[in-house]
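Chapter summary example: a protein plus zinc ion.
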Amino acid sequence: MDYIVLDMEWNQPWPGSPSSKKVLPVAIRGEIIQIGAVRVTEGREVADEFQVLIKPKYYRHLNRRVSKLTGIKESRLRDEGVPFPEAMEQFRAWCGEDIIFLTWGFDDIGILRENLRLFGLAEDWTERWFNAQMIFNAQTDGATAQKALKTAMEIFGIEATRPAHDALGDAYHTALICARLDLDKGTREYAQALKSHENGFHGAQIPGCIARKVFYDYADKRAALSAMAGEENECPLCKKRMLGSRWFAQPGHRYMDLATCPEHGKFLIRVRLSEQPDGLVRVSRLTYEATSEAAQAYARRAEKADPEDQIPNRRRRRRRNASGEGKAVAE
Ligand SMILES: [Zn+2]
C-alpha cells in the first residue's frame, strides 16, 4: 500500500463571464488544470512524483486570479495540457492499485470526483482518502482549525524548497509533513479526529484545558451565549453555577469569558458557535485553568479592552431571579 499525497489547481469562470453562465451536465466547483502528487510509502519514505497539466474543456479561459496565484498561463495549458481523461489515465497508471490518498484540506477529493463524474469516468478508486490536516491537528497541539500548509511546515521546521500554489510543490511539502506523522495511527483514529474538528476541538492537548463539552440546539447566538454564561456555566470541579464576567469576541465565532466559582476561583471559558444542519446553534465549550496561557491572554485582552469588543453582553445587564441565581437577560 502507498499513500498518494495529492494537490490540484483548478480553474473557475470569471463571475459574469459567458463561461459562468454555462450549465454543465454535472455541477463542479472548478475544472482541474493541474495535478501534482507525491508517493509516500508505508514506511513513510517520500518517493516518486507525478505531475500533469490539463487543457480545460469547459472553462477554457483561465481566471486571472487563478493564473496569478498558480503562475500558470492559458497559453501553457493550450500547449502542454492534455485532455482530462488522458491525464486521469496517466495518473491512475502512476498511482497503482493499492493506494490511500492524502490531501491538505477537504476540497481536493471532492473536486476530483466532480470532474471524474463530469467526464463520465470511474470514481471508486478515490474512495480511500484522508485530510492530512486532521491527522496533523490530532498529533500536534494546534489551536486553530484548518492550518495553512505554510504554518504546518513552520511547526515542523520544514523549509520550503518548492514553489507554493504549484500543485506538485504543495504536494511535495505536504508529503514532507505526512512523512513525519504517524499515518497508520492517524488513519485508524481519523473518525475521532473528524469528530473533534466538527466539535471545534483542535489539537491533541491544549495546555491548561481541563474540560471540553459540546451543547446543541440553541435557537440563536444570543440564546447560546446566554446559556453559556447562565445555566450551563458550571464549575469544572464542584459543578456549581459560576458567575461570568463578559464575553470577548474572537475571530471565527469564538468568544471567551472569565468565570468565577465562589469556592474554586476563576476559570477561562472559551466557546465556539457553529450552525447545525437544521439551522440551530451548536456550542463547543472549553474550560481552562486560570493560570493557563489562554487565561493570561484573556486578562491582557480585558485590560486594554475596547468597549466595542465586549459583545454581545454589552447591551445586557445581570439580573437576579427569584432563586438568587445570576442570569444574563437581554434588555
Ligand atoms: Zn467550584
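Key point: Residues 209-330 form one domain.
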